[in-house]
Amino acid sequence: MTDNSGTSWRDRLFGGLKRTSDRLGDNLTGLFTKAALDAQTLDEIEEALIVSDLGPAMAARVRDRLAEGRYNKELTEEYLREIIAEEIEKTLAPVARPLEIEAFPRPQVILVIGVNGSGKTTTIAKLANNFLEQDYGVMLAAGDTFRAAAIGQLKVWAERLGIPIVAGKEGGDAAGIVFDAVKQATATGIDVLIVDTAGRLQNKTELMDELAKVRRVLGRLNPAAPHDVVLVLDATTGQNALNQIEVFKETAQVTGLVMTKLDGTARGGVLVAAAEKYRLPIHAIGVGEKIEDLRPFDPGDMARAIAGTAYAR
What we know:
With about 325 residues, the chain is an alpha/beta fold. The protein is about 50% helix and about 10% strand. It has twelve helices and eight strands. The chain has helices at about 10-15, 20-30, 40-55, 55-70, 75-90, 120-135, 150-160, 175-190, 205-220, 240-250, 270-280, 300-305, and strands at about 110-115, 140, 165, 190-195, 230-235, 255-260, 280-285, 295. An eight-stranded mixed beta sheet has the order 3-2-4-1-5-6-7-8, sandwiched between helices. Strand 5 (about 230-235), helix 10 and strand 6 form a beta-alpha-beta unit. Helix 5 (about 75-90) runs antiparallel to helix 12 and helix 8 (about 175-190) packs parallel to helix 9 (about 205-220). The protein is elongated, with a radius of gyration of 21 Å. It starts with 8 loop residues before the first helix and ends in a 6-residue tail after the last helix. The model has no long low-confidence stretch (mean pLDDT about 85).
C-alpha cells in the first residue's frame, strides 16, 4: 500500500524506525575492528543490545548465536545485523495477530485503553477505518468522559468516517454510555463496537473501579464482552511503555497491543522487549498521523527495520 506521495507502507516503517536502527548501529560502533570475536566483544555486544531497548533476553540469545557460530572468527556488522533480525523475528512472530471480527452474536466489543497522549483516540479512528475497509459495520463509544477533548475528537472522527457514535457529556457515566452503545449496536446490526476509555494512571484505584463497572455492564448485555482489551502504546516513550503494560495488565486485563508513533522519534526496540516479557498479541502498528497509517503487524518487516537490514525478499 502507498500513500498519496507514492511512499509504500514498508518504506514508511523503515523510515520511522531509522532512529532505532541508527541507535543500534551507534551502540555497536567499534566492535568490528578486532581480528576475531572473543568473550569481551560478546559482552560488549550484549550490553549494546540492552541499551538499544531490545531487552536482556534478546541480547543473551544473540550472544549465544554468535558464540555458537562465530567464536574466534571475524565478525562483520552485516552478519551481526542479520543475526539480530532473525532473533527479533523469532520473538515477534508468535505474537503477531491481527484483530479478527469473530464474535457471535454481534457486536464484537473492543475496549481501547492507554495513557493520555499515547495516540489512543486517533488509533480508534484508524482501527475503525481498517474495519470499514473490510466491509464491517462500525460504531464508536466515547467512554473517556474524563476529557471533553477526547469526546470532541472522537465525534469529529466518527463524522469523517461516516459511522455512528454514542457520546455523553464531560464527567458523565462511562458505563452508561457503553450500555447505550451496546444496545444500539445490537439493535442496528453493527459488527464492531470500539469503546474509548479513560487513560489516567494518577489514581489506579479509580481507573480500576471505572473499568470494572464498564465490564459489569457489558457482562449483563453480552457475557462474552469485552471481546478485546487493546492497549495503545507510544513508541517514543521507550522503556516507559513496559511500565504501562504492567499497570494496565493489572487494572484492565489487557488482551493485545497496538504501538503508535513509529516515526523518526521512535524507540521501536521496546516492542521486542514487550513481546519477550509479556507475550501479548501485537495487533497493529502505526507510522504516522494519516488515517491509513495503522496496519497489521508484520514481524519480518519490523525485525529488519529495527536491525537495519535489507527488506525481506
